[in-house]
Amino acid sequence: MILHSRDIVHKGMRRLWQSGGSDKRGISVSWARSLGDILLHLHSARCLDDIRDGLGVLKNVKQLSGHACRYSIEVNANWRVTFNCIDADTGIVTDIDLEDLHRHGGARRH
């Protein structure tokens, strides 16, 4: 569940979320629908299992190696929405970002 829009680190995704999907500045227009669906899914989930189940609209949710509570959801090719879910029972997500996880040197923001 997304409690506060400030939990969305990526400015373009935060604008998309706060505008109800109408403000696409700062994100690829072709990804807007997918990103909106992912954010809605993260907001609707009531526990980590809900996030993993995908509610029929998402690709795999993967735990990032080396991180106890950081996960990713594929958006397109190398790009992932990443987030923390510290308490699996509540499903509260924080530090939501859009990152290129395959770029040399580690994750890079879009």
What does the secondary structure layout of this molecule look like, with pairings?
Blueprint: H1 11-18, H2 32-44, H3 48-53, E1 61-63, E2 70-76, E3 79-84, E4 94-100, E5 108-109
Antiparallel strand pairs: 1-2, 2-3, 3-4, 4-5
- Total strands: the figure is 5
Name the CATH superfamily assignment: RelE-like
Derived structural class: alpha+beta
Shape: globular
**CATH domain class:** Alpha Beta
Counting H and I runs of at least 4 residues, what is the number of helices? Answer: 3
* Mean pLDDT across all amino acids: 88
Low-pLDDT residue intervals, each spanning 5 or more residues: none
Strand order of the largest sheet: 1-2-3-4-5
Proportion in helices:
10-25%
**What's the architecture, going by CATH?**
2-Layer Sandwich
InterPro entries: RelE/ParE_toxin_dom_sf (IPR035093)
Protein name: Killer protein
Structure description:
The chain is of the alpha+beta class and 110 residues long. It has a single domain (5-100), classed as RelE-like (YaeB-like fold, 2-Layer Sandwich). Helices cover 25% and strands 23% of the residues. Strands 1-2-3-4-5 form a five-stranded antiparallel beta sheet. A hairpin with a 6-residue loop joins strand 1 and strand 2 (70-76). The longest helix has 13 residues, at 32-44. It starts with 10 loop residues before the first helix and ends with a strand. The mean pLDDT is 88.
